[in-house]
Amino acid sequence: MAKQFEVGIFKPKGGGIPVADIRIDAGTDVNDIPKIITGVTGNSDLMKSLGLKGCPACKSGLDFRIRELYDNVVGVGVLLNPSLDSGLDSLSGAVDFAPVIPDRLWRAIDGPDAYCRLAGAWDMTRRAKARARLPLHAIGLSVGSADPLDDRYLTEILDLVQELDSPWWSDHLATVRVGNHEVDSPGVALPVVYDKDTLDSLIARVGRIVDRSAKPFLLENPAAFVEYPEQDFDEPEFLNRLCEAAGCGVLLDLHNLICNVRNLGTDPLRYLSRLDLNRVLEVHVAGGLDMYGFWSDAHFGPADAATLELLPIVVRGATHLRCVTFEFHEARAAQATSAGAEIVV
Ligand SMILES: [Fe+2]
Predict the structure, then answer these.
(1) What spacing in Å lies between the alpha carbon of 137 and ligand 1's midpoint?
(2) What is the whole-number distance in angstroms between the Cα of residue 256 and the centre of ligand 1?
(3) What is the Cα 131 distance to its own chain's centre?
(4) What pLDDT digit, counting tens, does each position of 303-325 carry?
(5) Which of 271, 289, 303, 329 could lock 299 by a disulfide, CB 3.0 to 4.6 Å apart?
(6) Does the reported pTM lie above 0.90?
(7) How far is the CA of 212 from the centre of ligand 1 (A)?
(8) How far is the CA of 284 from the centre of ligand 1 (A)?
(9) Which CATH class is domain 75-344?
(10) For the segment 247-269, what is each residue's pLDDT rounded down to a tens digit?
């Protein structure tokens, strides 16, 4: 039997029988494929949730498309946000991944009810799960903070990873909290200092996260407005050392890199040549905004040419790349979907 397989089900845009897109790992015996198909059509809960009648014996109800998992397949992702709610059906077949920000599924308050789920956001997430894989993209871990990890937050995230069967999860190489309370937030994600002390501290901190996680954990490169002086490493070397020692992967945000090109003068090709691209499982592309002379990671409309020009370099070099995700803010859905999504998809 296949060691791993993934199933996505979508309805063709022109109508007709729904398609089950089954991805198997490369070592699968072809004789096992009928068993996988029977497992899908015989899953009465799944078929019922899709409004279909399946027959395991005659394998009716779905057309099947079989392809290899991972090998030469880079999926397309769109960060799930409320503007996609009414168009979730159109995700089917168009995107493979819809990364979810778990922090937006919960009440934005402190205290015992902080992790109560918001009904609307959770309903949208469940419906998205029937159409795409859902990696988690957290924003509250505050990896760069010096205070102890928020154990309850991490536990909630890891439970969600299990519940949503997320293939991986991520957060940012940044500090979003100073002290134990979010009220002490600096108001923006601050990059960490790339020096030896911070590296040692983060290797231990990220190592604890990786040890507890059953799925790969990725760190996203940050967008910055200023550069700290007298650092020991540049960002690619810091990320390489941290990921190697802590056992995590990289979520490479190409627009964040472009922010740093425009704000700090970073050389993007040198950056990509120094980063260990083998660690990259996911790439972000997005649009930004000039704000008082700084380029902001505002997720404002489509990704620009400077960002997209870097994409082929990464796709060629990142041997384990699974997904390219387009991030846009729901307030800019019209601009993003009329231009950016077409470019990405
Ligand atoms: Fe990003």
Answers:
(1) 9
(2) 7
(3) 16
(4) 889 999 999 999 989 989 999 99
(5) 329
(6) no
(7) 24
(8) 5
(9) alpha beta
(10) 999 999 999 999 999 999 999 99
